[in-house]
Specification:
This protein is an alpha+beta fold. The chain contains 11 helices and 14 strands. A hairpin with a 4-residue loop joins strand 9 and strand 10. The radius of gyration is 24 Å and the shape is globular.
Length: 458
């Protein structure tokens, strides 16, 4: 078995995020104008996708639309784009820390990073290279590569947005068709570069859209640090705070002011013989769909602790020999899926009545999994399935249950009996880490070795 780190879909982000320049308005306001700068556009969490314009559209030709600044300029509002002052068109004072790269008005923007064809120490771009006293051309000439931004157009008038897209270079010169698409339905067609920057962009778009008020005092918040920080509006230099207690965020570091990622364990449990894997079917999934069980890591838990607790709660199984495989950023909305293997005794009874999350849990043999993996539809999910999952996941409490299995949708009672032309059951595709750890075990490339059954400590 290989000891090389496994790179899952959405992983391996190719951008230099230049975190130290997120507060630099000279850099940010200059790089917007660079000819190589590109924009990823989102509406209601759906990315703008480009296709060849052929009819019917070939799904294999889907890719992220990467618009130029000229394309999106009508949507950006007046300059400055970052470090906006009290009045429109006003640049905030350089010494006003609360307004570092602040965007007080206009469509939400996030600076994602810089794609460099070659990274060298000479291209490290220290913040000292960027000064408000330096002219625009000199500032941008220091940057070698393409800057990427995300733009949330959810609140833009539909007619205005349609006009902008119809006038874009992609439409007028390249003959491409631009449409917003449910992301799960096209993620298998994105290449590794696009999948990774999509994951970053969508998670950041979602975080900025969801969080509108300060958790400490209830005041509205505004975007700063080029979309990477939310600052309480009571801290604006011109804020009227008469009769109000100072907001606790005025001093100190507060985690809710910065983007968060929630950790989820997702585990393939193998039996003592090494020939069976335990899968579950959530009550909201589609017929015949099975996957790994998963759950959010709770405070005071290690990965191993969370695996043991979740398996007991969901299937009444005591597991041991818990091992890490790999991880995957999952941008629905922003979790890190931690792929694990564990061992359990398949001779012990299963029970799903503890937390009542699963419709059923069942042991599957390696032979059964290989038959499904060899079927053309064994990991193939329909567009309607993806839409169903999206509606269920995005419309529920994000801490009720993770997007399990990196799962997929709605469920009736399934069966292991194959139809004349369909697989006996379905499992997640390899674009989801659930599909990866299942298939890697099935092919003998990962997973625990056969052991003698023993009792695990909870």
């Amino acid at each position: 078995m290989s000891t090389d780190p496994y790179v899952n879909n959405f992983s391996g982000n190719p951008l230099n995020r230049l975190a130290w320049l997120r507060t630099s308005q000279p850099f940010l306001n200059a790089i917007v104008h660079a000819p190589a700068t590109r924009w990823l556009v989102f509406r209601d969490g759906q990315p703008l996708i480009q296709t060849s314009g052929e009819a019917p559209v070939n799904p294999s030709k889907h890719s992220l639309a990467r618009l130029t600044t000229r394309d999106v300029r009508p949507l950006l509002g007046p300059e400055p784009f970052f470090s906006q002052g009290q009045r429109e068109g006003q640049l905030a004072p350089a010494d006003e820390k609360k307004l570092e790269a602040a965007r007080l008005r206009g469509t939400p923007i996030v600076f994602l990073g810089l794609h460099e064809s070659q990274t060298t120490f000479a291209a490290a771009l220290p913040s000292s290279d960027f000064s408000a006293k330096t002219d625009l051309q000199t500032l941008t000439s220091n940057v070698q590569g393409s800057a990427y931004f995300s733009l949330d157009v959810t609140d833009v008038d539909s007619a205005e947005l349609d006009n902008v897209l119809a006038s874009s270079v992609a439409t007028t010169q390249e003959g491409l068709k631009l449409t917003f698409s449910e992301p799960r339905a096209v993620m298998s067609t994105l290449d590794a570069f696009e999948a990774a920057i999509f994951a970053e962009a969508r998670s950041m778009i979602d975080w900025n859209a969801r969080n509108k008020f300060c958790p400490s005092c209830g005041s509205s918040v505004f975007s700063s640090w080029a979309g990477w920080k939310l600052t309480c509006s009571s801290l604006l230099p011109w804020a009227d705070n008469a009769g109000k207690k100072p907001c606790p965020t005025a001093t100190g570091l507060h985690n809710f002011a910065h983007p968060r990622t929630d950790a989820v364990v997702i585990m393939a449990v193998i039996d003592q013989t090494g020939d069976k894997v335990l899968l579950g079917r959530n009550k909201k999934w589609p017929p015949k769909f099975w996957s790994c069980m998963s759950g959010f890591i709770e405070p005071g838990e290690s990965f191993e602790d969370a695996v043991q607790r979740e398996m007991w709660e969901e299937a009444g199984v005591k597991v041991f020999d818990v091992r890490y495989h790999s991880s995957q950023p999952w941008p629905y909305p922003s979790t890190i899926m931690v792929g694990m293997y564990a061992t359990a005794n398949s001779d012990e009874p299963l029970r799903t009545d503890l937390d009542n999350e699963l419709d059923e849990a069942r042991w599957f043999t390696r032979e059964e999994l290989l038959a499904v993996l060899s079927h053309t539809d064994g990991t193939n999910l329909s567009r309607q399935d993806h839409k169903q999952l999206s509606a269920a996941a995005e419309g529920s409490n994000p801490h009720a249950k993770p997007d399990e299995a990196n799962a997929q949708p709605k469920a009736a009672v399934g069966t292991r009996t194959a139809s004349s032309d369909g697989p006996a059951f379905k499992i997640p595709p390899r674009t989801a880490i659930g599909g990866v750890i299942i298939s890697e075990w099935a092919y003998g490339r990962a997973g625990p070795q056969p052991v003698s059954p023993k009792t695990a400590n909870l």
